[in-house]
Amino acid sequence: MEEYLSQFGILGTNEIRAFLSLGKEHHFQPNDFFIQEGTVCQKVGFVVSGIFRSFYYAGLGDETTYCFTFSNNLISAYSSFITGQETPENIQAITDAQVLLFAKKDFDAVVQSNPKWLLFSKTIAEQQYVLMEKRVFTLQKDKAEVKYQNLLKEHPEYLQQIPLQYIASYLGITQRHLSRIRKEIAN
Description:
Blueprint: H1 2-6, H2 13-20, E1 24-28, E2 33-35, E3 43-49, E4 52-58, E5 62-69, E6 73-75, H3 78-83, E7 90-93, E8 97-103, H4 104-113, H5 115-141, H6 144-154, H7 156-159, H8 164-171, H9 175-186
Antiparallel strand pairs: 1-8, 2-7, 3-6, 3-8, 4-5, 4-7
Helix pairs in contact: 4-5, 6-9
């Protein structure tokens, strides 16, 4: 995580190490929840290893996967984390995962005590907005084949670990359609 925080060029080594000392390591097994809908998110994590999926319930309890979080990324129910309101999302481990967890109160205290952390928070918020906008545009304009090929290009090492029903849900298609796409790409 030190390398991740350093890449932004905002925080110094001492600031990063002081923050890291506030974190607590946590192991998630497959199907364990980072957070469930209807609760307020009081933590942010850094995924050291593993894969998570974010989903919500649509219609008659159907799950819609809208995001995957891979190693070396931050994880949180972000809107709940910043607003203090209940989250409509679920974040669940797909694989065994190691996460460094930080309590909201600790994170808020660090941000209040140092303007560099405020700038870092702003930078992360901007990144999250750009990712969300990209996801919305991709969902609305790209065909499932293009979305699958992007996933293959960006995260090929993880694709074998994600159950097909989650990938199909993420792409907005049926598992049958996903099988056809995968067959066409393999040929």
